[in-house]
Amino acid sequence: MGIYNKGVMTMLRKHIERIVRFPVTAFILAIIATVFFAYQFKGLHMVLDPKALLPQDHPYVKLNNEIEKQFGGSRVVLIGVASKDGDIFNPQDIEKIRQINEEVKKLPGILENNVVSIADRKVKYVKAEGDSLDIKGLLEGIENTPEGMKELKDRVYSNPAFINSLISKDGTVAAIITDFKGGAGDWLQKQGKAGGSSEQVDRRDEVDRRDEVDSSRDRPSGL
After folding, report:
1. Three-class SS of residue 133?
2. Which residues of the chain form beta strands (DSSP E)?
3. Which of 9, 19, 48, 85 has the highest Cβ tally under 10 A?
4. Half-sphere exposure (CA, 13 Å, Cβ side) for 183?
5. What is residue 182's predicted lDDT score, i.e. its pLDDT?
6. Distance between CA atoms of 26 and 42, rounded to whole angstroms?
7. Strand, coil or helix: what is 176?
8. Domain extent listing, the chain
9. Is 98 exposed, middle or buried (0-12, 13-18, 19+ CB in 10 A)?
10. Cβ distance 125 to 142 under 8 Å?
């Protein structure tokens, strides 16, 4: 070990002596090396998607990619709405949740069918009445009154699946769960297409108006 250390020290001493003896040459070589390695950076790119590091030809990865393509679920974004005073069962907070729920569906790359909240039309209230089931949207028929808000609260808490998923146990925070498809490149590509032709814009406006009409049917009265 002592002989090895002595050899290393000898090499370092010779290297330092060369630098001291030829400082200009050492400086130029350092600049050339720096420029060379800096030039290599242009070929580097950051991969933010960990799935891109997986072997894409593996059968398990192929199956996962197909499931994700069909159903989404890998890029979930959770939006929280918290009440400043009391719980969220008041007309102002419920309207805020409903507006966010509808506006987020217009974002590029959104998987609209995977957007879920207590204000979404897909979320239902189920009540057994004799031999039949009464199924309706959580907000369907809810009045903009204290009694209506109490009825909505009773509907939400009647289903344990909503607790700590769409609403906190104490009712002070509600969640809007969203899901996006594709990565950053797909997002930018969709944003680039957002302008589109005037005909495409008109079609989107028409669809948005139809969605607004549909959503108003489930909106609490007076909101």
Report:
1. strand
2. 76-82, 124-129, 132-137, 173-179
3. 19
4. 9
5. 61
6. 26
7. strand
8. 2-43, 46-73, 75-217
9. buried
10. no
Could you give the CA distance from residue 142 to residue 221 in angstroms, rounded to a whole number?
Answer: 6
Q: Among 222, 215, 204, 217, which residue's Cα sits nearest to residue 98?
A: 215
**β strands within 155-219, DSSP E:** 173-179
Q: Which tokens go with 195?
A: 């302008």
Tell me the three state secondary structure of residue 214.
helix
**DSSP code for 43:** G
Coil vs helix vs strand at 74: coil
At residue 68, the pLDDT reads 75
SS3 of the chain: helix, strand, coil, percent, to 5: 55, 15, 30
Question: Among candidates 197, 198, 211, which has minimal Cα distance to 104?
Answer: 211
Residues whose CB falls within 8 Å of the CB of residue 80, separated by 6 or more in sequence, listed in order: 173, 174, 175, 176
pLDDT digits (tens, 9 = 90+) for 13-72: 888 888 888 889 889 999 999 998 888 887 777 766 677 778 888 998 888 788 777 766
- CA angle (158 as vertex; 157, 164 as ends), nearest 5: 40
The residue whose two tokens read 């797909």 is: 186
pLDDT tens digits along 177-209: 998 876 444 444 444 544 444 344 344 444 444
d(CA 120, CA 179): 14
Report how far Cα 138 is from the mean position of its chain's Cα atoms.
Answer: 24
User: How far apart, in whole angstroms, are the C-alpha atoms of residue 145 and residue 161?
Assistant: 26
